[in-house]
Amino acid sequence: MGTDRPDEEELERRDHDYRWLSAAAGGLILIGTITMKLIEEWSWVDSFYFAVVTATTVGFGDLAPETTSGKLFTTLYIVVGVGLIGTYLNIAFKRRFNRSSQRSQRAS
pTM of the prediction? Predict the structure, then answer.
């Protein structure tokens, strides 16, 4: 009563959400890598690099799709990826912050 600590059920829900988002973010990068490898015929490293840089909105511009299929896929990938990666990073940082503040509270 009167505590800001989440109950066990809430912690389990947060862990479930985090695991799901981790898998979805990893899957998104994997799909982006494989798709760009197949469509643009880039190396695996270039395809992975493009998938990560695009999904995280860094977008250096050093690689860009040249095929119509690659451009269309990238458009969809950006729309889905930015939301998914943004949500994942938000949850991951909150989780890390909550754990470090719990540790410092226990140490006090």
Answer: 0.79
